[in-house]
Amino acid sequence: MTVEAKPILEVRDLRIALPKGSDRPFALQGLNLNVHAGEIVCMVGESGSGKSLSAGAIMRLLPEPHVTVAGGEITFEGEDLLAKSEAEMRKLRGNRISMIFQEPMTALNPQKTVGWQIDEVLKLHMGAKRKERQAHAIEMLKRVHIPDPESAYNAYPHQISGGQRQRVMIAMALALSPKLVIADEPTTALDVTTQLQILKLIRDLQKEEGAGVLFITHDFGVVAEIADHVIVLRQGEVVEQGPAGQVLNDPQHPYTQALIASVPDLLPPPHKPVTTRPTVLKGTGLRKTFAARGGLLTGKRKAVVAVKDLSFELHQGETLGVVGESGSGKTTVSRLVTRLLDADAGAVEVDGTDLLACSPAELRGMRKHIQMVFQDPMASLNPRKRVVDIIAQGPIVHGEDPEKARARARELLELVELSPAAANRFPHEFSGGQRQRIGIARALAMEPKVIVADEPVSALDVSVQAQVLKLLAELRHRMNLSLLFVTHDLRVAAQLCDRIIVMQKGEVVEAGFTAEVFADPQHPYTRNLLASIPGRTWTPPYRKTDAA
Amino acid sequence: MKPTIPPLLIYALRRLLQAIPVIILIMMGTFLLLKMAPGDTVDALVGDMGGADAAFIARLRAEYGLDQPIWVQLWRYMVKLATFDLGRSFVYEQPVATVLMDRLGTTLLLMATSLSLAFSIGITLGAFAARRAYSLADNLISTLGLIFYATPSFFLSLMMMLLFSVKLGWLPVGGIKTIAGFYTGWDHVVDVARHLVMPTAALSLIYLSFYLRLMRSSVMQVADQDFVRTARAKGAGETRLMVHHIMRNALLPAVTLFGLQFSTLLGGSVVVETIFTLPGLGQLAYQSVIQRDMNTLMGIIFLCSIIVILVNFLTDLLYARLDSRIELS
């Protein structure tokens, strides 16, 4: 890495004030950073660390007057950005400083074509004729490797895939060869294979253009993949910064060490002799097609095969992972086995009884044997009920004495490492990780034979994720739980699952012991998935340290 | 290659097919409801004449077919309707279709002006208020909107009459034109416009407040979305943001409301037309109920159903044009 003398972007002692009554007076306290030409600086931190607001401050797009820059300097190519007028800033934005956002779904205007939206940047800053601008836009679409750029130019955002939308965002951001690109979690919402492609694309284009990139992320795997320089933020304060290799492999600050230790490593657990134990959950020939809708008088929609002929066995005390990218049908599987969705064909046997053949009354009785932990811990708990009632509700419905059920709920809270005082509070008073613990306690209250967990840690910060995973592993060991674990995150799967099923487009492409699949993947799709894990070549140090 | 039918035509045909059962159900329901109300045309006629003997009344009933069982009457009416024959009005002694066409113009004029005024002014004010949310201007606009929203149209009409016609004498009290004026050309247009000012204002102010409130919240919601932030990061100015990014998306709910309101506006015009003695469909409907002029009443309802269905169809087309995510198929 050759570092030129003068950085493109210099931030000195930046402070951002939050409105009165927030949990802390400053979102950001004393941020110092340099971005040089041709350098990728990664800003890492968990939610609430102030990393997105610092991007807002550089673009001068903070939600003023609620959040304001309280002090410090931002110098871009020798010019003081904070002293510029709004009109001067407008000339810079999209032209010499540009930004890539997280959600490709919502960051593009749904009512305008892709071409129109790229053209907008050109119209604002380029001052060329329509024909020239169009040629340039199509050239940009070509450079971000969008298939058939001419037709994509006229497409609306909903007509192209999520990965392609993010490519359009990048084409838009790089259209005028900006000196500085700020990328705010640009790959977080994407599948791993797409994520890797996008990261490569950003890296390549940045090299060609020689631009400086300020890359904001929460994912150390992504950092390992792309960063030259790393800044670690916690609660608005910089705890550590330095060259990527140094921060990743030899972190100095305890917080960085804890964060890195929380990254699930890619070494699967050793074999357990699980296949010899009795089967508790068995799926045979499961199939689900979301039927074509419509007919004579209404619009038609094509039929979608979500799950094609899926069979699996889950043994007692075992964790079976179902992994795949979006659209692979893994969530449909979790809904089929819990009969939240009716399968078209096949059987789900819980302890020898076919769940799918049960009458509604029998089904109600069977429900307590198979429980679910959901992805979004905010949306899956009733906001109007106290925690103790949320947990005790299931057993009470199944005929347990309310007093006993509540006493048991308090015990369960202790089991998931929450204080008993939590029992009388409402879900919104808890953090995401704590809510997920409540969700787990709720599932355990029924004393189920099987727990189906659908992406239970995907919405959590990495340190919290590590804690919840640890809790799950402990509970599994202590209570001899059988888990069906649905996830898109191969690192998480590697850490927790004994066996995994890899799904693609509703079909199982590979199944086996996690260690074996990871060590020697047979199917090309599995190989591609494994090769796409960000930072796969980087082994986090401090693996065995107790996480945060 | 076989000739392809344009998808729009297929869509229109399908909507037409869907409309037929709707209209049949509306007509049957209204017919039965009206028959359930006590008294019929003959009662009203005889009442006007000041009484008649029983044999005459029976003969009159037989002549109008009112002595038949209700389902026979219904069948006869529906068969006639199938050939677009709306029958004769016993009060006006003319075919119903002629009576309706005489009145349709006034009502459509009133409705089109009120609704387009309400729509355009409501949207402009709503968007303006949203961009200056919680400022003095916003509070003023929102409070005024709330007042209009809460005021019944008859009250508004009477107060306007009191102020502008009785006290100030600026505008005529009622009617569609000055009867003894015999104006022609532009004078006629100005005369009609002067007569329509108050009814239009009374009718549109309430609907205006709907659009205002909807647009205000819609603009505020869209302004918070990611793509607006993207556009800002591209260096777009406030005007550009408003015109290309915010309004385009914020208009969609207002268009939906436009279609829905057309039907309620027809009902609202009954009150306003009656108060301002405008010779429109609303006033005709009111008189037909009083005089038990069954055929006219049914004709009005038939016409209104068709107008509402047509407007809803046009709204859907407009919506599909505005929202690129919706495809007509």
The main pleated sheet of chain B reads as: 2 strands, antiparallel
Structural class of chain B: mainly alpha
CATH architecture of the largest domain in chain B: Orthogonal Bundle
Q: Class by helix and strand content of chain A?
A: alpha/beta
Query: The CATH topology of the largest domain in chain A, please?
Result: Rossmann fold
Strand content of chain A: 15-25%
Average pLDDT of chain A works out at 86
DSSP summary: helix tally of chain B: 12
Q: How many domains make up the 3D coordinates of chain B?
A: 2
CATH class of the largest domain in chain A: Alpha Beta
Main sheet record of chain A: 6 strands, mixed
Number of strands of chain A: 20
Quick one: CATH superfamily of the largest domain in chain B? MetI-like
Shape of chain A: globular
Percentage beta strand of chain B: under 5%
CATH architecture call of the largest domain in chain A: 3-Layer(aba) Sandwich
Q: For the record, what is the CATH homologous superfamily label of the largest domain in chain A?
A: P-loop containing nucleotide triphosphate hydrolases
- Radius of gyration of chain B using CA atoms only: 24 Å
Number of domains of chain A: 3
Query: How many strand units of chain B?
Result: 2
Rg of chain A to the nearest angstrom? 25 Å
Subcellular location (chain B): Cell membrane
Keywords (chain B): Cell membrane, Membrane, Transmembrane, Transmembrane helix, Transport
Transmembrane segments (chain B): 12-34, 108-128, 140-164, 192-212, 250-276, 296-319
Membrane topology (chain B): Multi-pass membrane protein
What does this structure look like?
The complex is a heterodimer of chains A (548) and B (329). Chain A is of the alpha/beta class. Helix content of chain A is 35%, strand content 24%. Chain A has three domains: 1-96 and 178-260, P-loop containing nucleotide triphosphate hydrolases (Rossmann fold), CATH 3.40.50; 101-175, no CATH class; 318-341 and 359-532, P-loop containing nucleotide triphosphate hydrolases (Rossmann fold), CATH 3.40.50.300. Chain B is mostly helical. Chain B has two domains: 7-96, no CATH class; 101-322, Orthogonal Bundle (MetI-like fold). Chain B contains twelve helices and two strands. A two-stranded antiparallel ribbon of chain B has the order 1-2. In chain B, strand 1 and strand 2 form a beta hairpin. Chain A binds chain B through residues 59, 61, 90-95, 98-99, 101, 103, 106-113, 120-121, 124-125, 156, 158, 169, 172, 296-297, 299-300, and chain B through 14, 17-18, 225-227, 229-237, 240, 244-245, 248-249, 322-325, 327-329.
